[in-house]
Amino acid sequence: MIHRNESCTSGQVPTSYLCCLIYILEEWTGVEYLEDYLNYVAYLLWVFTPLIIVFILPGLILLLLYISIILLYVYKRKNELKEAYSNDIWDGARQMVATLWDGHARIWHGYEVHGLEKIPEGPGLVVFYHGATPIDYFYFLAKLFILKNRMCYTVADHFVFKLPGKSFKQFRSIALVDLVRIKSCLESMAWKGGFKLLLDVFGVMHGPKEECVKALKNGHLVAISPGGVREALFSDENYVLVWGNRTGFAQVAIDAKVPIIPMFTQNVREGIRTLGGIRLFRLIYERLRLPLVPIYGEFPVKFRTYIGDPIPYDPNINAAELSGKAKAAIQSLIDRHQKIPGNVFRALMERFETQQKED
Fold it and tell me: Per the UniProt record, which residue ranges are transmembrane (predicted)?
């Protein structure tokens, strides 16, 4: 540090610009030993920045969702669609959004699907393990649409349908030069109208059982995670299935006379993790039924989705027995393809493996 009576340019050896800047700040603020304080701040940033990042990165998923919403609205506007629209018209939009998610899947997670040929040409009920977020399922939907040109209707938790869903109508009256109104327009699109359009275009439904059976009888694929939000938030790196005594999905398969197709994604809990092990968050969820458990991660670990052998329709077994078979099939996929307990570093290293475990 230079002496108080010296200038930054005095002496035979010029003082560094950083030392000069610190000296000027000390003179300006009247704070002595400012360099020590700055070193302390730099140390705190070095320690806590990685922690902050792992809680911010999951926001990329939300960003992709809103980009998807914007693409759908642009597509809707371009084709001059009103409230009523047909599935055929929306195929181009689905292809566009699927390409977006498939690109993210390949770049960020080296995503692969194994066993896609096991999905029947006709209807079927896809049953899958629910990670902290369903991002692996989004990737699967993208692959299914790109490679098979097929949709898969999805049964979602009730809280998804409580998101604001008013129609977006301000866009057509916005002048391009009015930046304030453009900003208001985009906020309205994202928070008020976006999710409803996204859910409608991609066939997300709340149920009930009759609606699921109807979709299956019409020849569609339907997907459900029996563990739902509880499994997402409160399972852990041991990949414990949190199904309780749920048999409704099995009864749907029986009533529709369709096979159940088990599915599991390797390392899905290493990509994003939750703080669901903290008792307070479990109590809050059971009280409010809202997923208020913090998540962190979005680590670029290897994702591989494995599709198991379909469980064929059997009129001689009941819903409880079929549910047990489906649970055993998912557990078999976990045992076969997932190292327990899951480890983030190992999952990262699997991005560089040239061989995989046998399908």
Answer: 43-75
> Which comes out higher in pLDDT, residue 89 or 147?
147
Reference 169, options 65, 73, 89, 94; nearest CA is 73
| pLDDT score of 193 | 53
In the structure encoding, which two tokens stand for residue 39, read together? 């070193």
The angle subtended at Cα 25 by Cα 19 and Cα 29, nearest 5°, is 150
Helix spans in the chain (H): 17-29, 34-56, 59-78, 91-109, 135-148, 179-188, 194-201, 209-217, 228-234, 248-256, 268-271, 279-288, 319-337, 344-349
Q: Is 114 a catalytic residue?
A: no
Question: What's the CA gap between 331 and 70, in Å, rounded?
Answer: 38
Element (H, E) at 114: strand 112-114
- Which whole number is the average pLDDT over 80-101? 72
Catalytic option among 130, 206, 220, 337: 130
Task: Provide the 3-class DSSP secondary structure of residue 328.
Answer: helix
> Pick from 168, 162, 163, 182: which is nearest to 82 by CA?
168
DSSP 33-90: THHHHHHHHHHHHHHHHHHHHHHHTTHHHHHHHHHHHHHHHHHHHHTT--S---TTTT
CA-to-CA separations, 150 to 3, 92, 96, 122, 140, in angstroms, rounded: 74, 13, 14, 10, 11
pLDDT of residue 34: 58
- CA gap 130, 142 in Å, rounded: 17
Distance between CA atoms of residues 198 and 65, nearest Å: 9
- For the record, the structure tokens of 191 come out as 């928070």
- Which two three-digit tokens encode residue 264? 């599991």
Report the alpha-carbon distance of residue 103 to residue 287 in Å, rounded: 39
Backbone angles phi, psi at 127, to 5 degrees: -120, 125
